[in-house]
Each structure stands twice: as structure tokens, then as C-alpha cells.
Amino acid sequence: MKKRNEASNHDRRSVAQSQQQDGNSLPDTSPAKKLSVTDDTSLSTSNEKLGNAVSDRSSTTTTASAENEVPDYCTGNEEEDKRLKKLHHAAKEFYTVQESFLKYLKDMGEVYPEYVTEFGKRLGKDLLIRQGSQLHIVRELQILFEQLIGFHRLLLEEFSSRLDNWSSLNPNMADVILKYADFLKICKPFLLEKTRFVQELTRLREENKDFDNATVAVRFQFDTVLIRAEDFETWRGGVVQQLDQVHQNFMRYKILMMSYNRYLEPGSEEQMKTLDAIAKLEKIAQSVNDSMGLPSNEQLFKLYDRFQCHFDVFYPGRRLIRQGEVFKQTRKEPQPRYLVLFSDTLWICRVMSGFGSSGLFDMGRSYRIPIETVRTESNPHEDYEQQLYIKSKYKSLILIMR
């Protein structure tokens, strides 16, 4: 596991490699070409300076999943061997997810401010200058993310040490969560200020075109893939959206623990510890949600199950706004449906009623409508006051609200 330990200590990754990979699939929007530069030497020097801002990142980042294959178990019982291997995969996922989150924290807390600083220098500007007596919002974020990086690096090392000598015959991952769950509260100051951060970042990007260009261009330097290549225009709001990753991370730990628990031996000491860890995570996450005025985790997890894991209710930036039973108007008679409205998506779901699947959404017969395509109409006449006409290029229908 030497490579994993080395990987967890590296804070940087090669910019040249990142630019080469991204350049093949993304539009060429490097800041150098956005600016009016007439001197080729000046252009080359400027690109070199921007690259140097993050060029000390290691080019040998290795994930746990890439480094070691999960071994086969041979107990003489085929079903037991399958369970043990699935448990090993579940344990390994703690490291994989944690490593990805730590990369995200470094991208946002180190790479982003460094890149914007260098971008401004080539323009002869300080893009992160104080706003009156206040630090620039990116500098505020940098300070908060530095605190998060230290703790989450420690947590990654704890997961790594468990996997160094892992055997599903003697699982021991629950102790890590039980020991460090309370420290997850370190994220609370950031989360309580997140709305202000979003508003301020949005305002600055609208008012300062250079800052906006730097924010768009920095995606080439990120170690984590935050926005797909074809979603380039979406990236203009990507940094704001990614601030939600910190909050969503609370839910990830519980999901990991629930998956891990699924393959533990029933009634074992490790399972008892795991159930305690899940309860502890739920209590902490609910405390944060209450402080932020958000729906309970219980609501979200129930929806996660009803979508049968085919829709990510925990996606960064996604907010549950409303859910409930409605009727769909048809030529014959109204048919029951279940409406789930998120900040970015409207779902009109058909609910299954068969044995063993009651209450789950029939995903093959449900409709997902991007919220930006939705238009609604209502008729003020008393005979139609409960009807809502939903129009979209994906689906149009009349709902009867209950």
C-alpha cells in the first residue's frame, strides 16, 4: 500500500497532463486566447506563468481502486465467499470516495485561488483584492477549505491504514467513523455561510468579466472531473454549484456505511458498531440540516430508495422543493401519479404496487423533465382551479393537484 500512502501526501498534479487530456474534448477557451495578445513571446510566457501556479501537483496520483484488486475469498462456501468479496469492495469504497473528496477540496481551496491570482497578474490586476475591509470571497473560501483539507487528509490516511491489512474475515471500518464522526462538524461554519458565498460569487462574476473568465478557465487545472466536457456552458455556474459538495459529503458517509452494513455478518460486533456509526452520522447531519433549514435526511433517503438508485437526490446543488400525490388528467379518468419537484428537475412518477415493490417508482414509465424547459399554465375558473398544465419539449400533461 506504499503507493496509496504516497498518493495521499501529494497535493498537486501535473498541469501539462491535465491540459492535454482536457484539450482533446473541451473547447479551446484558455485565458490566453481570450485576451488580446500580439506578441508571441509574451503569450508563451503568460501561459507558462499560469501553468506554474499549479505545476507542482504530482503527476502520479494513484487511487486505491486502481492500485489493488479485491482478492477472491476461499472459505469453502460459495455464498460466503461472495459476501466477503462484496464486503471488501464496500470497505474499499470508503477510501475511493474520500480520496475524490479530498481532491475536490484541494481544487477549490488551493488550485482555484492560485490560478485566479496568476490569471490576474498577467492582466496587471489583482482579481482577489479586498472588498472594502473584507477579504475577497475566494480568500474566505480558501481559509475555510484549508481547515477542511487537514481533517479530511487525516480521515483518508485512516481509511488507507485499514485497507493496508484488510480482511473481510475481520472487518474493522466502523471504528474510524465512530472515532471521527464528531469532527465532521468542522464543516458547519462553511455550510452556514454557504448562501452568502454563493450570492457573492455570483455577483462578482457578473460584475467582473476577468474574474469570470478565470473561473471558467480554471476547470482545466482541476484534478477532479466536476463538469462533463459537453457541459461547458454549464460550467459557468460550476464553481457555485460545487460548493454544495461539502454538504453532500455528509450523506455520502451514511450511504457508504449502509452499503458496508449490508454485507456484514448479522449480529456481529462490527455490525453493532456500524449501526451505531450510522445513527451518529444521521444525528450530526440532521443537526446541520436543521441549522440550514433543509429537509430531513430521512426524506431524502426514502426518495433515494423509491427512485431505486436511478436518480441522485444528493447531487450538488439539487434541492427538494415539494413532493406529493397528484392525478394525471387522461381521456378516460384521472390516474394517480407522484410528483417530486427538485430545484433542477421535475419528476412525474408512476408508483409500483406489486408485491415486494410497493411504493417504488416505476422508472421505465416515469417522466423526468429538466426544470429550465418547464412552463406552467392555470385556469382561474373554479372548475379548473386544481388543474395545472405543464408544458415542456420533453413532456406536456395536465395535473390535478390534491
Automatic annotation (TrEMBL):
Residues 1-14 have a biased composition (Basic and acidic residues). GO terms for molecular function: guanyl-nucleotide exchange factor activity. InterPro entries: DBL_dom_sf, DH_dom, FYVE_RhoGEF_PH, PH-like_dom_sf. Residues 15-28 have a biased composition (Polar residues). Residues 1-76 are annotated as: Disordered. One of its GO terms (cellular component) is cytoplasm. One of its GO terms (biological process) is cytoskeleton organization. Residues 86-291 form the DH domain. PANTHER family: FACIOGENITAL DYSPLASIA PROTEIN, FYVE, RHOGEF AND PH DOMAIN-CONTAINING PROTEIN TAG-77. This is DH domain-containing protein. It comes from Ancylostoma caninum.
